[in-house]
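Let us practice reading a record.
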Amino acid sequence: MAAVAAASAELLIIGWYIFRVLLQVFLECCIYWVFRYSLQKLAYTVSRTGRQVLGERRQRAPN
């Protein structure tokens, strides 16, 4: 009976360890994707704003 309890405890510990590793990998992937898309959106917004500002300056230059 003690051997069964020890084996169950060992499997529980191994399962908990695997769960923690998979959870950590999942969370790191989520964080990576969030920051990747946030930075891409920020870069797009900055470049679009920069083009708008440069376009306004080019239009004003001939005056």
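A brief commentary: Helices lie at 2-60.
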